[in-house]
């Protein structure tokens, strides 16, 4: 398949952004900050082989109803550089997540297991 984008019906890669968290969270303070972030609508957190990331849901404002790009010829460089050798068309990104927290409760449960003294 030369261009998977032409076969994709839901334009999944255009419905979220990810942002590296930076240093891996280690302390209760680090995880407290992540709890604050994941408390916001549309913010999730995952860890994969490359590190920890925020996953922010929200469709690109240039995504057309049938999934095309409304500014294709002027699209940002990051879109131009996107390599779909492997993408959500092949398998859900979640398949590569080592840890995945969709909300405050899921991350808090993890924190309580990781830190015996959580909440004290």
Question: How many structural domains in the coordinates?
Answer: 1
Query: Would you report the number of β strands?
Result: 4
Share of helical residues: 25-40%
Oligomer state equals single chain
Q: How would you spell out the order of helices and strands?
A: HEHEEHEH
Structural class: alpha+beta
The first-to-last residue Cα distance is: 55 Å
Number of helices: 4
Shape descriptor: elongated
The biggest sheet, with number of strands, parallel, antiparallel or mixed sense and barrel status, is: 4 strands, antiparallel
The low-confidence parts are none
Mean pLDDT: 90
- CA-based gyration radius: 17 Å
Strand content: 15-25%
Strand order of the largest sheet: 1-3-2-4
Please name the defining characteristics of this protein:
elongated; 4 strands; alpha+beta; 18% strand; 120 residues; four-stranded antiparallel sheet
SSE layout and pairing:
Elements lengths: L3 H4 L8 E5 L7 H11 L4 E6 L2 E7 L19 H5 L17 E3 L2 H11 L6
Helix pairs in contact: 2-4
Describe this structure in words.
The protein has 120 residues and is of the alpha+beta class. It has one domain (14-112). Helix content is 26%, strand content 18%. It contains four helices and four strands, in the order H-E-H-E-E-H-E-H. The chain has helices spanning 4-7, 28-38, 77-81, 104-114, and strands spanning 16-20, 43-48, 51-57, 99-101. The protein has a four-stranded antiparallel β-sheet with strand order 1-3-2-4. A hairpin with a 2-residue loop joins strand 2 and strand 3 (51-57). The longest helix is centred in the N-terminal third of the chain and has 11 residues, at 28-38. It is elongated, with a radius of gyration of 17 Å. The N and C termini lie far apart (55 Å). The model has no long low-confidence stretch (mean pLDDT 90).
């Amino acid at each position: 398949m030369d261009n998977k984008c032409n076969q994709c019906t839901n334009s999944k890669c255009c419905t979220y952004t990810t942002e590296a968290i930076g240093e891996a969270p280690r302390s209760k303070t680090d995880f407290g900050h992540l709890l604050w972030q994941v408390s916001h609508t549309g913010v999730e957190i995952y860890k994969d082989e490359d590190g920890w990331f925020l996953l922010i849901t929200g469709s690109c404002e240039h995504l057309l109803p049938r999934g095309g790009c409304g500014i294709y010829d002027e699209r940002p460089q990051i879109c131009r550089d996107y390599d779909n050798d492997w993408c959500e068309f092949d398998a859900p990104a979640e398949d590569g997540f080592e840890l995945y927290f969709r909300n405050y409760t899921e991350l808090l449960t993890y924190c309580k297991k990781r830190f015996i003294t959580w909440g004290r």
